[in-house]
């Protein structure tokens, strides 16, 4: 795929009405996928796959069935687990507006692109995790595919600590995200970050970070606004994050989060890794034995910063996200690092009208790009077609990573595998097919594209012959239990924190450290 073509996959544009593209959901409870190459993370074989009542029942070289079973011929094609997107923001209220796709529309787009589960981020309501998750549960009632929740932590006190426990034990969440950026809104300081990491470890939950130095980013924004905002509005607007979030701020924050996680001895997940600097910090930590996961996103693999300099504001603003898309070379380095990672999207899509909120003030451009429909095809095109990874690697990166996406969040082998007993979330990919990028063929409210030949979700054929067959309320909330494989044996290492003398009552660990 040419660079220009890849860039079009990530461009945002005006809203499009797509209601006539959604048909009634498929209802067949018995399916046979015949003659395809079944691909899991570490193995592939030509086999038939029999599905009944939403569950994979049998995988054999030949399976005979009666007339009541719907048969799909997959000869010459790959039969793979549906993708799991670990990083989305649907129906997200942010920067004075709300992301363009709700749960139903965004999920329908995902299904058309071969993703069958996503994990969205719950933002607290008025500081309450309980109110936050209740609001998201209401939004997700219209879901047409399976989903889970991460929880964002935006402040720290004893109430927050108790609510984290409630989220894990009663709500089925096992991951918490901490923002090191967005000062004055979502950002928390190092003292609270440390407390949050300690709580995550005790609960068996995964600590996640948005790694940028929020204080420095804030200062950069103020400086650039004062210096440049009256000079050349178009250029300023097109370079929002490029001007303000220089690469070293991502690397510095990534290193700081890694060191704090090591201090507590808890696993760490760094979301949307966009730069060589951050990638190298993660690689160094992993080499030392620390349990750190890096998550590149589709836009970072496919694009470079040149689009931020486009003379047309609308085109350039579509690329604004945080951390920003980097200069050429970072994309190739991130691709090379995928042997130890997984791929998300950070789906946080705004249309052109919403992006134009920042036309007179670059600080007001809503941060975010699309990708939930494009991710599977982008990774195939960039990584498999170029022979950088194998077909089994592709499954590992987009669905499992040895069930990685699913293993990290403790839902494998229910998700991320084609095995007896697994959920029947399956895609059929034709390696010889091609498709044209058009606004008409896209299924989110964004004029980009995405296509797989067949998507099966929960045993229902939901995407076939370029037609979506989805219905409100057919998606399920998937609870994710704590203590994934990342927690196994972690206490054998010990941690620096346990070796410190006890702190005086009421004194935080960071305050106590300052006395030494």
UniProtKB/TrEMBL annotation:
Matches recorded under PANTHER family: COLLAPSIN RESPONSE MEDIATOR PROTEIN (PTHR11647:SF1), HYDRANTOINASE/DIHYDROPYRIMIDINASE FAMILY MEMBER (PTHR11647)
Record NCBIfam families: D-hydantoinase (TIGR02033)
UniProt enzyme class: hydrolase
Keywords: Hydrolase, Metal-binding, Signal
Family in the record: Belongs to the metallo-dependent hydrolases superfamily. Hydantoinase/dihydropyrimidinase family.
GO biological process: pyrimidine nucleobase catabolic process
One Pfam family of this chain: Amidohydro_1
Name of this protein: dihydropyrimidinase
GO molecular function: dihydropyrimidinase activity; metal ion binding
Chain positions with N6-carboxylysine modification: 177
Organism: Glycine max (Soybean)
Post-translational modification: Carbamylation allows a single lysine to coordinate two divalent metal cations.
Cellular component, GO annotation: cytosol
Alphabetical list of CDD domains matching this protein: D-HYD
Listed cofactors: Zn(2+)
Catalytic activity: 5,6-dihydrouracil + H2O = 3-(carbamoylamino)propanoate + H(+)
Residue intervals of the Amidohydrolase-related domain: 78-462
InterPro entries: Amidohydro-rel, Hydantoinase/dihydroPyrase, Metal-dep_hydrolase_composite, Metal_Hydrolase, Metallo-dep_Hydrolases_sf
Domain of life: Eukaryota
EC number: 3.5.2.2
């Amino acid at each position: 795929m040419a660079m220009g073509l890849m860039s079009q996959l990530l461009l945002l544009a005006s809203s499009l009405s797509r209601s006539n593209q959604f048909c009634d959901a498929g209802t067949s409870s018995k399916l046979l996928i015949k003659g395809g190459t079944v691909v899991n993370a570490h193995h592939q074989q030509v086999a038939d796959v029999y599905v009944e009542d939403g569950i994979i029942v049998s995988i054999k070289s030949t399976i005979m069935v009666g007339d009541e079973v719907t048969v799909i011929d997959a000869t010459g094609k790959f039969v793979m687990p549906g993708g799991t997107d670990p990083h989305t923001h649907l129906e997200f209220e942010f920067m004075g507006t709300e992301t363009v796709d709700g749960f139903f529309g965004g999920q329908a787009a995902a299904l058309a692109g071969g993703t069958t589960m996503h994990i969205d981020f719950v933002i607290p309501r008025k500081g309450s995790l309980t109110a936050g998750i209740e609001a998201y549960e209401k939004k997700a009632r219209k879901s047409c595919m399976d989903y889970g929740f991460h929880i964002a932590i935006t402040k720290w006190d004893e109430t927050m600590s108790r609510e984290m426990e409630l989220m894990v034990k009663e709500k089925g969440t096992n991951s918490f995200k901490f923002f090191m950026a967005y000062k004055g809104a979502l950002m928390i300081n190092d003292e609270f970050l440390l407390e949050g990491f300690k709580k995550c470890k005790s609960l068996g939950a995964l600590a996640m970070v948005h790694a940028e130095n929020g204080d420095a980013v804030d200062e950069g924004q103020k400086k650039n606004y004062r210096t440049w905002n009256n000079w050349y509005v178009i250029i300023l607007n097109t370079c929002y994050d490029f001007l303000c979030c220089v690469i070293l701020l991502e690397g510095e924050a990534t290193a700081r989060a890694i060191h704090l996680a090591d201090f507590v001895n808890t696993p760490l997940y760094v979301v949307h890794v966009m730069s060589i600097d951050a990638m190298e910090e993660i690689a160094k930590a992993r080499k030392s034995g620390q349990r750190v996961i890096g998550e590149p996103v589709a836009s970072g693999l496919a694009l470079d910063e040149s689009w931020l300099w486009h003379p047309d504001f609308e085109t350039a603003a579509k690329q604004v996200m945080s951390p920003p898309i980097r200069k050429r070379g970072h994309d190739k380095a991130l691709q090379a690092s995928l042997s130890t990672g997984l791929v998300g999207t950070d789906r946080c899509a705004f249309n052109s009208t919403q992006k134009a909120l920042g036309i007179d003030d670059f600080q007001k451009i809503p941060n975010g790009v699309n990708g939930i429909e494009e991710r599977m095809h982008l990774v195939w095109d960039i990584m498999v077609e170029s022979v950088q990874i194998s077909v089994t690697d592709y499954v590992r990166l987009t669905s499992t990573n040895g069930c990685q996406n699913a293993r990290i969040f403790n839902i494998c082998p229910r998700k991320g595998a084609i095995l007896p007993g697994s959920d029947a979330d399956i895609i059929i990919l034709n390696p010889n097919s091609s498709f044209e990028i058009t606004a008409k063929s896209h299924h989110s409210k964004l004029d980009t594209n995405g296509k797989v030949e067949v998507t099966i979700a929960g045993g229902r054929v939901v995407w076939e012959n370029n037609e979506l067959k989805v219905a409100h309320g057919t998606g399920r909330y998937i609870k994710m239990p704590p203590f994934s494989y990342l927690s196994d044996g972690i206490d054998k290492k010990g941690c620096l924190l346990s070796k410190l003398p006890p702190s005086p009552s009421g004194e935080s660990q960071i305050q106590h450290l300052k006395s030494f």
